[in-house]
Structure formats: C-alpha cells, structure tokens
Design a protein that fits this description.
13 helices; mainly alpha; 245 residues; two-stranded antiparallel sheet
C-alpha cells in the first residue's frame, strides 16, 4: 500500500504522516457516531459555536472539524480550552481513547521499549488487562505481573473482538520484537488475523479497516527463517488472509 504524504503550505511545518491522517479520520468518525451529530458542521456548532459568525450572505466558521473529517489536519492534543480531543471527550466520553491509542506511534514506526509496551497494555480496556495480567501484585511488588501468554489468553482475546484487542496484538508483536520471541510474534499475528472478520463489521472500523489492516501488515511483518542465521521479514497482506477464508 503506497502512502501519500500531505505537505502543508506553511514554511518549516513537517508533513502530515499518513498514519496520523488515518488516526484523525477514524477518531472523527467515532465522535460523529457517538454524538449522533450528522456532520462536521453540526459538531462544530456543538463544540465551537462561539467561533461561528453569521454574516449577511454566508457563515464564517473555523472549519477545523471539516479538516479532521478529511484527515487534512491533526489535533495537537495539547492542554488548552480548544483541545479538540478533550472537547469531544466531554461530549462523548471514551472517544479520546481512540485518538490516543498506543497503536498509532507503533504504526508510525516508533520503537517502544519493554516498559513502555507493558504500560500501554495496562492502559487498555479492563477485560484485556484481566486477560494479560495477574489479579494482584506479588509480595514486595507494586504492579501485577504479566501472565504467561498461553492458548487460553489467545482464545479469550480473539473472542473479545474489540479495537483494544487489536491494539493489544500490535503491542504484543512489538514486545516480541523487543524480547526476540518468534513464538510470541506468530501468536500475536495469528490472533490479529482471527480478529479481522469481527472488526471489519464494527461501525467504528468498517470504513477504515482496509487502510488500518494494511498499515498493520506493513509494520508487523512475519518472520521467516531460511537458515539458523538468517531471518526474512515477510509482509502477508490482509486480503490474502481473507481469500483463504
């Protein structure tokens, strides 16, 4: 899948990463679904009405939500009264989780260390935390440890079928790279493939799964070992998995 980088006209501004464009469009779509509002204009009137000015022949408005809808502008998500992610979160609790998901930095190609991956896993939905971590910390430890990742964990995560299940598998694939575990890598990718059929039918993801899955395929490659001292990184695209089914 080729990515087109949109270069803003302003001098010195970095280009918008394709993953951030997808992230913003998906987040906007979730806000639209959860709010029940029909358009970017309706969301703007709800959240930024004070910036809209009616003139004699037309309406002057910021149109930032139009840009978010199209992925042409990404919310900065910095503290302040005009933080669009926080504005939407107040209106529709839970939507910020989609924008701030740890899946996005991984899909941008950022490398997370083991501690950062584990922290990200702990901040996923409670059902996933319960699957992946022990119930209580052990003596003299502040946080519960990760459970051994076994067939029971695999089955439960696949059955959960949520966006955070997908995020967990991308994080586990990244963890496999960090600790050099081919077994964990293949298990994570196998669950990812199992989740695809469920996720592509969910209203939040239905419009975006081709782009999302293609980004994951390119970032989370399969490892093939033609010999003991050689490893090939192989991309298996989601379309091929769907065809086999």
């Amino acid at each position: 899948m080729s990515h087109k980088v949109i270069k803003p006209k302003g001098r010195g501004r970095p280009p918008t990463h394709p993953v951030d464009r997808l992230r913003t469009r998906l987040w906007f779509h979730v806000v639209k679904l959860r709010s029940g509002l029909p358009s970017a204009y309706a969301i703007e009137m709800k959240l930024d009405r004070d910036l809209v000015r009616k003139r004699d022949i037309d309406v002057s408005r910021p149109t930032k939500w139009d840009f978010y809808r199209d992925g042409d502008k990404v919310p900065s998500d910095k503290p302040g009264p005009r933080n669009a992610v926080e504005q939407a979160e107040v209106l529709c609790p839970g939507t910020a989780h989609w924008f701030r998901s740890p899946i996005w930095p991984i899909l941008r190609g950022e490398k997370l260390d083991r501690r950062a991956i584990e922290l990200a896993l702990r901040n996923l939905q409670p059902e996933i935390v319960e699957i992946l971590f022990e119930m209580e910390p052990r003596e003299h430890e502040s946080l519960p440890r990760q459970r051994p990742f076994d067939a029971n964990c695999e089955t439960r995560l696949a059955m959960l079928g949520s966006f955070d299940s997908l995020v967990a598998m991308v994080l586990m694939a990244a963890l496999a790279e960090e600790i050099a575990s081919p077994e964990l890598r293949e298990t994570a990718l196998r669950i990812y493939h199992e989740l695809q059929k469920t996720l592509k039918e969910q209203p939040e993801i239905a419009l975006f799964y081709p782009e999302l899955f293609s980004c994951i395929d390119q970032r989370c490659k399969h490892w093939v070992y033609p010999s003991q001292n050689q490893r090939l990184d192989v991309v298996i695209f989601w379309q091929g998995i769907q065809t086999k089914e």
